Amino acid sequence: MNVPLWAWLALGAVIVVMLAIDLLSHRGAHVIGFREAAIWSTVWVAIALAFGGIIFWAYGVDAGTQYTTAWLLEKSLSVDNLFVFALIFGYFKVPREYQHRVLFFGVFGALIFRAIFLGVGVAVVERFTVILFVFGAILLWSAWKMLKGDDGEESDQSNNIGVRMLKRVIPLKDEYHGTKFFIKEAGKRYGTPLLAVVAAIEAADLIFAVDSVPAVLAVSSEPFIVFSSNAFAILGLRALFFLLSGLLERFHLLSKALAFILAFIGVKLFFQAGHEVISPSIPHIPTWVSLGVIVISLTLAIVLSLRHPAPAAVDGASTPESTDESTDEPAGEPVDKH
Predict the structure, then answer these.
(1) Which residues pair with 34 in a beta bridge?
(2) Residue partners of 163: CB distance under 8 A and separation at least 6
(3) Which domain holds residue 216?
(4) β-pair partners for 314
(5) Among 203, 267, 213, which Cα is nearest to 77's?
(6) What does each C-alpha distance from 311 to 144, 203, 314, 316, 333 come to in angstroms?
(7) Residues lower than pLDDT 70 in the chain
(8) Is residue 88 part of a domain?
(9) Residue 20 pLDDT
(10) Nearest Cα to 1, choosing from 221, 217, 214?
(11) Is residue 265 part of a domain?
(12) Long-range contacts at 57-60 (CB < 8 A, ≥ 24 apart)
């Protein structure tokens, strides 16, 4: 793909404008309800698909299929992030009216870090194709951990690397002060618990990038496709969280589907590396096959989850939403867990 500079600038402008609109439309502290989240989720999906249509028109079916597959892959993998976000919010007892502000800065940071990781990943793959074997092994290991129900995250966020590093830079207070990240007392600057939550979410996203970056590089090595697909998937992450809040536990088979998808993409990387490094006779799994596997896996997981609810869901066990509601506290109430 020969992507001109103006196309990169246009992509960057779209991302900046949409971030600005999103931030300005959610000023102040308020709870994002299902209807508002549904509207914004529809907007983000429509923008992502419209951009995919442009890719199809400008660069052909193969490039368009790569973009669609990479976007859907990142979108599906981001569901696993939502469970961790809910866990972090519950641990820090973040009032629901402040959660959208935290996630905005989490998304902003994720875009920056993901751009860096993807840029480095593309450069490394172009020079050392054998690294695809390593990426494939990482995805297979991640799939195995996910299948066992071990996502590597603990309920105790006091050991979160982002929070620990933040405490070395600035002292933290135990009380929320509205939507402020910093306060001054006696001439000294302190961070609020909201700042600690942002640090925890950014650290979690860095961990998830270990899975996401190799996965998207298995679909395409074109920088424009891998970044744009990840960017549009990440931009809709905040709305998706509020849309699915309280429903995540109902889709109890999604983790199994995501594990299967990661394993499939890992195997695809092995075939791709073998094709390029060992022998051209080793088959290469087409992108449209990957797209079909992702769509079918997610559809089956959702349908089967609804048809066969987990016992916890049937018995009305707590969900991320109920956890948030049970821990809603007014601004300024002490939070002593970190």
Answers:
(1) none
(2) 157, 196, 199, 200, 203, 338
(3) 33-326
(4) none
(5) 213
(6) 23, 32, 5, 9, 35
(7) 25-30, 149-159, 246-249, 312-338
(8) yes
(9) 83
(10) 221
(11) yes
(12) 59/1
